[in-house]
Structures are given as structure tokens and as C-alpha cells.
Amino acid sequence: MQDWKQDTEWNDALRKLGIIPELPKEPEPEEPIHDDGIHPEKMSLKQLEKAEDLFDEEDEIFFQFYKQQKLNQLRLNQQRPSFGSVVEITRQDWTDQVNKAGNNIFVLVHVYNDGFVCGIISSDELCSLINNCMSRLAPLHPFSKFIRGRASTCVENYPHKYCPSLFVYKSGDLIAQYVRSQLPSISCLKG
């Protein structure tokens, strides 16, 4: 009889059928996990330049690649239009500010109405909350446009019962719209 520890085709066939036991697996040598505390993906460009001396030759290629990638991203961001605030518009501004905003630019439009009460919650309260949220979000998303407009001066014959309304555009195309009935309740927004 053959030795079951030999690695032969016959023994492989017998192992598949469960007639002889599997060969014991040789343990693979474990590579030690080395963390030197340097995480280039979390560093700014200045920090990367200061830490350049800490990298050994093996990491130099990666460092140069990453540095170039960061520089390219900075150049790209400088070429992109930047907004960072909420702009009030009228009907005359709509085409330029919304439809012709530019390629790959998101535009969030809040159409509101002052002094309209519908049910328990006034339109003023909801509009005020949305305006407040937009004012906080605009600086955090400088490559998106945040626009608001009074319904009476922004959209001709816009029904008051739909205020507040939010419209989301990308590259001049409407991609989403939310009217008053689709917005969360006031208690949800305050909490």
C-alpha cells in the first residue's frame, strides 16, 4: 500500500472521496503588521511635504504618485465654480442661475411663500427651517448652488399650498422635486 502522505494523483483521488485524510496544511508565515502611525491618505499637502523625509525608498514611488494626485485634485477644485452661500433669485434670474448653472453642478432651489397658513403648521415655520438648513449646508458644499426664491416673484402662478417646495437640478435638468406634502413634519425637523 502507498503512503497516504505522498502527493500523487491516486492519493488526490482517494482524498476527494474521503478514503484517506487530507494532507496537513503547512502554516504560512505571517507577515508582521507594521503601523508606523503615518497615514498619507489623511494628511494635507503641507504635512505630506514635511513627512517626505520619513518615507524610505520603497515608499517614495507611492509618495510621489499620491502627491501628484493631490496636486491634480487641488487644480481641479480651483477650476470648478465655487458658491458657498444661499442666493435669492427672481423669475428673471431662474434661467441663468438654475438651468444654465453648468455641467455636473447640483442646484438646490427652495421656493417659499411668506404668510401662508395651511393646517396646524404655518408655511412660514417650514420655510424658515428650510432656509436655516440651507444656510448651514451651503458653506459645507461649495461646489453646489443653494438658491431660494419667493413663489410670487420666482414662479408665475405657483400654488401657495405647495410651499415650501424643493427642486434639485443637475446640469440644468430637474432630477428631484419635493412639495410641502412630501416634506417631513415640523416635529421631525425641529428634533
Characterise this structure.
This protein is of the alpha/beta class. It is 37% helix and 15% strand. It contains seven helices and five strands. The model has no long low-confidence stretch (mean pLDDT 78). β2 (106-112), α5 (123-140) and β3 form a beta-alpha-beta unit. The radius of gyration is 31 Å and the shape is elongated. It has a domain at 86-188: 3-Layer(aba) Sandwich (Glutaredoxin), CATH 3.40.30. The chain has a five-stranded mixed β-sheet. The longest helix has 23 residues, at 57-79.
Quickly describe the structure:
Helix content is 37%, strand content 15%.
Label this structure with key terms.
single chain, 191 residues, Glutaredoxin
Describe how the helices and strands are arranged.
Blueprint: H1 9-16, H2 45-51, H3 57-79, E1 86-88, H4 94-99, E2 106-112, H5 123-140, E3 145-150, H6 151-154, E4 165-170, E5 173-178, H7 186-190
Parallel strand pairs: 1-3, 2-3
Antiparallel strand pairs: 2-4, 4-5
